[in-house]
Each structure stands twice: as C-alpha cells, then as structure tokens.
Amino acid sequence: MKYLRKIMIASVIMTVSAPVMAQTQSEDGYYIAARLLHSQQRAKNMDLSLRPSIGSFFDVDNKENFFNGSIAAGYRFNHNWRAEGEFVFPRNSKFSTGSSNFPTSLNVYDVKSQRYMVNLYRDFYITNALSLNANLGLGVSRVKTGGFQGNESRVFNENTVTNLTYSVGAGASYDLTQNWSLDFGYRFVDSGKIESGFNRFANVRRLQDEQLKAKLIANEFFVGARLNF
C-alpha cells in the first residue's frame, strides 16, 4: 500500500503542476514498444490454502524476483494521452509455505502467469523532450497453478484461472528523436486470486481435501523503447 500512496501523491502533484510545465503537443500517431521488466512478485494469503489438521500456516518463501519482457502497440493522442494494448510474456514462479504440525513437509507452489493489458498514460512535458506520466492498466491475467507437498511425487493437480487484473503506476519518457522514445517507470500489479487443483496424492485421511491458494501481486519496474510512427 505504501507504493500505491506514493503513486497517488505523485499523480496529484503532476496534475496540479501541469499548467506551469512547458508542455509540447505531440502529433497523433501509432507506436510500438518493447519493455524489459523487473518484477518483485509476491503470493499473499497463502494461509487460505486447504490442508486440514495442519495446525497453522507460516510463510517460508512468498516472494520471487525475476526479469521478464513485454511488447505493446498503441496510439498517441494530440493532448499528451496514450492508449495501448500490452502483452506480458509468460513467467514461472515458485513459492512455499509450511505448517506447524508438519514443519518439514512444505507446500510448494508452481505458478505460471501471463497478462493481456490495456494501458492508459497521461504525459506531462517538462521540456520539449522530457516528460513525466501517470499510468493505469486494466486487463486479464492467465495463471496456471500446481505444485507439490513434501516431495515432487506428492503433487497437486494443476488449475488455470483467468483473472481481472489492474495496474497503477508512474514513470518518465525521453524523446531521443521525433520517432524514438525511451520509457522508464514503476507499476503495482494485482493479478487476483489463484488456486491449484486438489491433491493427487493420498493423505492420512485418504481424501482429496487439500488445495493451494494465494493472491498474486507484484511491484514492477520497467525500461523500454518506443517507436513512434
């Protein structure tokens, strides 16, 4: 939440100060972009997983840091607005939890996620080349979740969900030429709730009543190149 508060404050400052900034009126036109992403992904609420008689859950490893990439195509409007569609490439993550009654038998999540987003940017030009921006995104994440318990022979069935996803962030752009721009930024991404299928292995109750659950969020930093037509 501290990241979200910072973004909201920055957005308000940019909006209030926009009239005194030296803005440039970009021409309308299409663009394509490629971005390198560094994601600090986190699985929250793993204690909602189903595992009867375990005592209480505790997090062992609920974070994953990795690089990823995305491509986008969009349209630049005359009054410093941009709208685009973005595809974030698939990426695998692993998380794990333990339980007080079985501390050496960890639940290990195997998560594969990808995103399809529609992003909106508001650019505020400080000079003819440098601008700050606030950005919002709305789309869907497709997330496949499986995993195992204790060892890799005790697997959970895989399950795939398609979740409504949103992002909010801020960044900066620098126009190298009339056609090429560099983009830098940060965004918070909420990909919603995920869950595996039920246990495929036989537990002490001889029941299929165990399931991995979590909520997937990320702090994402990016740098990219944009070709304006």
Question: Strand tally, please?
Answer: 9
General shape:
elongated
Q: Indicate the CATH class.
A: Mainly Beta
Strand line-up across the major sheet: 1-3-4-5-6-7-8-9
Helix content: under 10%
* Derived structural class: mainly beta
Please tell me the overall pLDDT: 87
Number of structural units classed as domains: 1
Looking at CATH, which topology would you report? Porin
Task: Write the element-wise H/E pattern from the N-terminal end onward.
Answer: HEEEEEEEEE
What is the CATH-assigned architecture?
A: Beta Barrel
The percent range for strand residues is over 45%
Attribute tags:
229 residues; 8-stranded antiparallel β-barrel; single chain; Porin
What is the secondary structure topology, with strand pairs?
Blueprint: H1 2-17, E1 29-44, E2 57-61, E3 63-77, E4 81-99, E5 107-125, E6 130-149, E7 151-175, E8 180-198, E9 211-228
Antiparallel strand pairs: 1-3, 1-9, 2-4, 3-4, 4-5, 5-6, 6-7, 7-8, 8-9
Task: Write a structural description.
By secondary structure, this protein is mainly beta. It has a single domain, classed as Porin, CATH 2.40.160. It is built from one helix and nine strands; from the N terminus they run αβββββββββ. The protein has one helix at residues 2-17, and strands at residues 29-44, 57-61, 63-77, 81-99, 107-125, 130-149, 151-175, 180-198, 211-228. It has an eight-stranded antiparallel β-barrel with strand order 1-3-4-5-6-7-8-9. The longest helix is centred in the N-terminal third of the chain and has 16 residues, at 2-17. It is elongated, with a radius of gyration of 21 Å. 30% of the residues are buried. Mean pLDDT is 87; it is low at 7-25.
